[in-house]
Amino acid sequence: MVLEEFGVSSDFVSDANAAHYYRQVLHNTLLAGASGWIGWNNTDYDTLADQDPYRHHAFEMHFGLTDVRGNPKPQLRELHEFSKTLAEIDFPNCRRADTDAALVVSSFLDTQYPFTNPEDGPYAYTTLRQSYVSARLADLPLALTRESDGLVPDARLYLVPSAKQLLSPTWRELETLAERGATVYVSYSPGPHEEQSGPWQANLNELFGVEHQLRYGLLDQADDERIEFGFVRDFGGLPTGSTLTFRPSGNRAYLPVRPVTAEVLAEDAHGRPAVLLRRIGSGSIVFCAYPIEYLAASAPNVNPDGAVALYDALAVHAGVTRTVTVADPRVAVDTLCHRDGRRFAVLVSQADDEVRVKPVAAGATLDELTLPAFGVRVLPLGRSAAG
Predict the structure, then answer these.
(1) Which residues, listed in sequence order, are joined to residue 370 by a DSSP beta bridge?
(2) Sign of the C-alpha dihedral, residues 249, 233, 313, 180?
(3) CA Rg, the chain, in Å?
(4) What CATH architecture does domain 325-383 belong to?
(5) Helices H, strands E: what count in the chain?
C-alpha cells in the first residue's frame, strides 16, 4: 500500500507544524501498513501565479517540500529523517506484528442497499476512523475485517463501533464467534439521520441480554454536558469506581435498556446501564448503550477520551496480544518485526508538549524516555523466539 498525495500548504500551516504533520503522517501510516510514500509535492510554484489553477487557488503554489528557490522546507527534513529510520531497520524486510483484534467494517460503507440512505456509508467511515484512533491510543493494534469479504474467524476481540447497520447473518456470526471464545464489543447508534433511526440489529434483546425501552420513532437524548460512565464492577483492569468521561456532540441519542441475562459493568451519571456484559459459551458480548465513537467523531479536539481506557480494558478482558504498551494515552506504540527475528517498538506522541513515558514490553526491559512535542522514537526490542 502506497500513501500518495499527502501534504500541507505553507499558507495554511506554520513551518514547525508542517514538519509535525509530515512526521505524524509518515510514522502513523507506517504502523498502519503503508510501504511507500509520495508527498505532495516536490516544490513551490510561485512562478506560476498568473496561470490556472494557481491564479484562482493561490495557496496551491506552496505545497512543496522545497521553496521556489530550491531551499529545503522543514517537511523535507522530516522525509529525510524518516528515510534514514527505514534504512536503519531494513524496512523492506519488516512487517507489522500480528494482531488478534479486528475492527469490523460494515458493508454499508461500500454497498448501497435498497431503501437505505446515502449518508449511511460516510457515517460508517467516520465512526470506524474514530474507533481506529481510540484503539491506536490504547496501544491496541487492529486488523480490518470487512463484512463484504467475510469476517476473519480467529480474532480474540471484534470491535463494532457505533454500529447502526450490519447484515442480519453478520450479527448471528458475531454471536457465534463470541460463543466460541471471542469478545465482541458493540456500541449502539441510531445513525446520522432521521430515516428509520432505530437500531437495525435483529433480536437486539437476545443478542445483548437486555430489554430495550425504546418508544417508536422517538430517541432518548443525553442532555448532560459530559457523559460519564461509572464502573460498578471490575472489568479488564478498570477497577470498580473507575469513571470514564465522554464529550457529547452530534446526535446524543442513547439506548435505554434493562439487563436481563447481561450484567451491568458501568452506569451513566443517572444510574442507567451504560456498559453491559453478556457471557455466552466461552466468550462474551460487551454492549455500550451510547454511541461513544460517533460522539467523539462529531467533536473537535476530543482525543483521547474515555474510549481509550474502555478499549484498553476490552483488550485485557479478551486476552489480546500487545507487545508493547505505554500508560499515557497521548502516545501510540506498535511493533515492527524483521524477518531475521529482530523487533522494533515505534512510539509516536500525539501531544503538543513534552511527554515522559516508560514502555512496558513482554520479554524486554525498556527505560523511561522523553518524547518531544509530536515526537517519535524507534526502540529495538531484541529478537523474537522465532528469530
Answers:
(1) 356
(2) negative
(3) 23
(4) Sandwich (2.60)
(5) 7, 23
Residue 207 φ/ψ, nearest 5 degrees: -65, -40
Closest CA to 26 of 94, 83, 101, 91: 83
- What residues are paired with 222 via a beta bridge? none
DSSP for 15-32, please give it: HHHHHHHHHHHHHHHHHH
Number of residues assigned to the chain: 387
24-28, long-range: CB < 8 A, 24+ apart: 24/348, 24/350, 24/374, 26/78, 26/79, 26/82, 27/82, 27/346, 27/348, 27/376, 28/136, 28/332, 28/348
pLDDT in tens, 302-336: 999 999 999 999 999 999 999 999 999 999 999 99
The 3-state DSSP class for residue 48 equals helix
Spatial separation of the C-alpha atoms in residues 296 and 299, rounded to whole Å: 5
Q: Which three cell numbers stand for residue 347?
A: 512510539
The alpha helices in the chain, defined as continuous H runs, are 15-32, 74-88, 120-137, 168-179, 204-208, 292-297, 306-318
Closest to 255 in 3D by CA, of 227, 215, 308? 215
387 pLDDT exceeds 50? no
| Among 101, 281, 59, 16, CA closest to 175 | 281
- Could you read off the pLDDT of 189-218 as tens digits, one per residue? 988 888 888 788 879 999 999 999 998 867
Q: Spell out the domain ranges in the chain.
A: 2-88, 101-318, 325-383
pTM recorded for the entire structure: 0.94
**pLDDT tens column, 101-123:** 999 999 999 999 998 899 999 99
* CA distances for 323 relative to 220, 279, 291, angstroms: 41, 27, 29
CATH number of 101-318: 3.40.50.880
